[in-house]
Every structure is written in structure tokens, then in C-alpha cells.
């Protein structure tokens, strides 16, 4: 292990630019993040850049952190999330693996048992199914099985959920799958701040954490607050965020679907239909049911929105927990789940469109739910 | 890079040994669109392959003398020309944003699917990964149905529901998106063949990148243990996405990966060598007691991994150019046909033109075809008549009820 770390130090100063960046973290931040300034002079960053800076900051802060996965190094990442990291940290900390998910995941988990802090990238979460045994049986359970004797501080990350036009085997959401496993923490960022803060929190967390990113969001820019630009920025795992305050109905969502929920909320407010509260879950496990309960007590109506399948989904779990909570008594209408359709993802555009929720579907369900009254 | 260093892939020349009358052989030009029955054309040509066409592991390599009729050779040319044209067309359609998502082209690799098919019957089965357009065509898929699938049309070979990666025919099991997962499936198809039809084999294709997946080795073991008529074929196009073979594999002699399974490395840029190797492997697999084989087809992918990969960040343009100009499978067969006086320049041009016309016609048709019916979203989740009473869409009012 010390060997790995020594090598890393040797290979990680290849250029003047990098030496400069190392000596001046502020400059580093500015250059590395390729931040752009929007009209209000705020800083914007794409989700991809936010993830990249999270990786870089955490690798800089702790030399036990390393990145492993297919094409993460020389190719700069299949989706360019790890762009530049090989140059900065060298091949002992940015490691291209063969296409052997079960093997390299197991290896990464083993290295976490032995004191490293791996970030194990899956080119997409679809391919982690090759390795799900190592995630569930080895990573999630060993701390418990060992009576606390063995730790597994590992981050599993990659794009999750539907992409565009890639068919059934490459388009599905694993939030409910991993969300059901005790021993794991599961986060699902929507925007750039989420992406940076949650990934950094995941890497620092002493438990195995599953980070469900979204390919279709990688290129989308969001404002970054002053705090979020700092090296110390982390978002607490297990806390949801109220993205938009409202009084008439609560929408709970995660990942890309938060954007659709926000758009639907805006639309309905413009139309004068309702003031919609939007909750961005951020974490799937632990699930911040308290924030949802609080909101429901205020709005008395609840809709869940996700890209995954309906049966046993994240929305199903939220419904069940609301039923089991005091919020149940505050509901004026039945909770409705907006989800992916209960089919494998089809290729053709017109079919694919019908398989996933969008703003229009959410707006329709909001209107219908507002018109309902329990017992009426 | 391994391939350019390999003497096997230096442009080879076939030598015309003699012509002999045609022997009746269960030839399998199932997708061959033209078949001349004239006696002269059907007469076998015995060709001599270059001595470096094969390298064997724990077995005697096939003979370098190959029996093929002029018709068969001309058909191989036509089929390669059609696949090349189809892939170039797909490239254009993708860039015109008419094809969505992933699209993996096989330009440069045409000799593999074409040479293979020439040695198979339709009792034999084939399975591969997502680089599957050529295989789909060779296993009976029409050009129109392939292009219509790429365009997401109702008339597509998978009714617009699969796309580029997921195409199937009765003797071709796809078209699979998870790297390596098709390999045990192939062993399973061979298992079924042994169970049901002892006289056919399964050819299970995978890439140099896929070759390292654990389940490949699990499949090897079962295939050997149970003497399955399975030929594992590593289509070594030198790269798995952006990773050259020697950065992914501790042993790049993929034909030796079977350890206890004999193997053969084949010049996969020579369609005749591929034909000979596959015919030999089929025979091997069907000879009881010999069990599986591992073939390695040395080939090359001209295009990027998929349409989003320019394919030039991890290899030089010169490298691609060099293979194209010295070792292109279509050019090589063309030169051989001319040298053997089996076709003239004019004949070749006519075949190229016909291939272009056929593909162009198919694409025009496909473009006019309708999108899938929206109700087909619900079809095929389960076998017709055995579905759940209903399935849910995106919200409770979107409900599809099945009529049973
Ligand atoms: C299990 C799995 N991991 C990763 C991927 C992403 N992926 C698709 S193709 C590919 C490269 C495969 O290379 P190779 O087997 O050589 O086949 P080629 O593309 O060269 O035909 C990768 C990594 C996948 N589809 N499935
Ligand atoms: Mg390859």
C-alpha cells in the first residue's frame, strides 16, 4: 500500500500547470472547474464538472482515495467525468480496469477492507449488475457480519437511470434496488451542488455509498453557491432539500425528475393553479421521511416522481412510510406515484417518451390530485 | 499494436491450385441473394491460403487448401460490400440524427460475419454482442429490417423496440448489450443443440475486451466439462472501447485463453481463411468427444467504438489508414478475385454498384415507414396471452389492460 502512495506522489507532478495548481488551491479551483459566469455574475458549473472537482478535491485531500473503473484514465472517462485526473494523480491512483466488473468491484471492496478509500466507477450502473454480489454481499454486510471489526469505506458511482435511445439493457433506475439494502447508503444527486456535495460526502463516509448519477444531467449547468465552491463543501447524506416552497401540494422526487417537478411547479404557479412544494430527496437511503412528513402536514397532498419502475419503487416506499406516520391524518387526497412505465425501456422515440415521466405528466397528476378530496 | 506486427495479417495472396467439379456440400448461403446455377460458376475452386493464415494451440490447424465455388466467392464479395454499405449508411443516418443512442459499426470486420456464414447451416446458431448489424444480415435479416430498426420503425427487425444493439433472427440470438453476458448464453444454446439436435453447433462471439469477463471462463469450463458443440469466437479488433488489447489482457493470445480448450488464431481480414476456420471448427465441434474450441479472429475496427467516439484519441490516424490500405478485407478479396480471373474490374464495380443500390433502396423505404404503434409499448413484456391482467404506465390513469 505504501508503495502505491509513494508512486502516486512521484507521478503526480507532470506539468508546470499542475504544480501551479497544487501550490494555489484557489487558482486550482478556478482553472479546474472551468467555471463560467452567468448573467447575474454567479458561478455556474455542469454536473460533470462538479463531479470532477469533487473527485479531484477528495483525492488531493486524502491520498488513500483512488479511482478505479473502465476507461477512467487514459480515455478520461467514458462520459469524461474523470477528465484530467490521470494527468494530475498518475496511474497508481487513477486506474483503468479490464471490463471485469465482478472482479474489479471485489478487488476495490477488498482494498477498502484493508484501509484504502476506493471510488469504484461503473461506466453505467447497468453494468454493476455484473458485480451486485460484491456490492450487496461483500460491501454492505461485512461491517455488520464482523461485529464492527471490518470497515468498508468505498464509493460506488456512475450514471444511473434512463439515457436516450439506448434500449432496455442500458436504461433503468437502480435506486429502489440499492435503496433496499441495509448497510449501504444511497444518494441520487440532481444538480451540480448536489453532485459535488454528495460525492464528497460519499467519499468521506466510512460506509459503502452508492452514488447514482445521471448521464443526461452531466452536461447541464447549474449555479454554484459560494459555499459549494469551497473544498470543504459537503452535503449531509440522509437529508432532503426543499427546492421550492409551496403550500398546496408536495412533490417528492430525485435525480433528473426533480427538474421536471420544478418545471411543473413553475407552470402551475404561472397558471395560478397552485403553489407547489418540491422536495429533492438527494438521499435514497437513509430516506429523509421527516422532511416529507413536515411538508405533507403543511400542504396535505403528496406526489412522488421518479424514473424507476412503479412496483416496489422509491415512491412506493415513501407512500408506505407516510401511511405509517402521523402525516397520514393530514392527507386530503390519496398519494400518487409518478414513475417510469412498467415495461423494459423501448428504443423507438415515440415509445420511449411514453415510458418515462415528464413535466406534462406531473402537471396533469398535480391537477387531478388537487381536485380530489378524501371522503368527498 | 499487435496486429500490425503480426505477420498473419500481411496482405495475403490466394493461389489458384486447380478447379474441380462441385461436391455437394450443405452450403449455407441462406442470405445470399443471388445464386447462379450455371455449372461453370458452381465448379469448386481450390484456393491455397497463405501459410500464416492460422496459428493453432493444442490442435492441428485446418488445411490451407480451401474448396469454394466461384459463386461462393462472388457472394462473399457481395455480402461484404452490402454490409460495408449498410454501415456507412448507418453512419450517415446517425449523423443526420435519425438514429438514436448507441450505434456500433463493424466496418473493417466484414470478413468475420461473412466468412463465418459461408460455412454454417441454419441449424447452426450464432450469438454476439452489440456490434451486430453484419451478423444480423448474414443470419437472414433483410437490409430493410435492419435499417428500419436503426430508425426506430415499426418494420424494424425488433419492431423498433431494440435498436442497434438488439437484433435477432431465428438462428441468431442477438444483439446483446452487456459485455460478456452473451458467452454463457452461447454455451446454453449449444447445450440445447446437444440436447435436441446433435448435428449443429453454436458460434459464440465476443470481443477482445469482453474476453476477460469471468463468465467467459465459467462458460469455457462447462462447455469442456459437458462436451458442448460450442465454438467460442473472440473477435479481436484490437480495442475494447479506448483500451488496446495489451492494456486489458494479461495474455493477448486470446486463442489460448481456453487453457484446456484447443484454439486457433485466424487472419480475420481474409474472408476465405475465416470460412476455412469456421468450417473446420464446426466439424470439430460436431465430432463427439472433441468438445469446444476457441477461435480468435484477428480483425480491425475502422470506426470509433460507437458513434460518440471519434476513435482517434487512443490510436493514430496512420494506424487506421495503414490497415485500410494494406489489409482491408473487401479490397483483399477483390484483388484475389481479379488475380484468379474469377471477376473483372467491371464485375466488381457492378457488384459495388448493386450493393449501393440495394442499400439505398432499403433506406428510402425504411425512412417512409411508420413509427411503432403506441400500443406496442405494452406488447412482449410477457408472452402474448400470459400477461398480467394489466400493466401500469407513468401514473395510475395510464393503465394497459390485456385482452385475454
Ligand atoms: C458489463 C459491461 N461493461 C461495460 C460495458 C460498456 N462497454 C460497451 S462495449 C465496451 C467495450 C467492449 O470491447 P470488446 O469486447 O473488445 O468489443 P468491441 O466493442 O471491440 O467489438 C464496453 C466497455 C457494457 N456494455 N457491459
Ligand atoms: Mg474489441
What does this structure look like?
The complex is a heterodimer of chains A (376) and B (404). Chain A has 376 residues and is α/β, with parallel strands linked by helices. Chain A is built from 16 helices and 15 strands. In chain A, a hairpin with a 5-residue loop joins strand 1 (36-37) and strand 2. Chain B is an alpha/beta fold. Chain B has helices at 2-5, 39-42, 70-95, 110-118, 133-138, 143-150, 182-196, 214-225, 245-248, 271-286, 317-327, 329-339, 345-368, and strands at residues 15-20, 44-48, 54-57, 65-69, 125-128, 172-175, 202-207, 230-236, 239-240, 243-244, 263-267, 293-298, 390-392, 399-401. Chain B has a seven-stranded mixed sheet with strand order 3-11-12-8-7-5-6, sandwiched between helices. In chain B, strands 1-2-4 form a three-stranded antiparallel sheet. A two-stranded antiparallel sheet of chain B has the order 9-10. The longest helix of chain B has 26 residues, at 70-95. The relative contact order of chain B is 0.16. At the A-B interface, strand 15, helix 15 and helix 16 of A face loops of B. The complex binds thiamine diphosphate and magnesium ion (MG). Residues 207-209, 237, 239-240 of chain B line the site of magnesium ion.
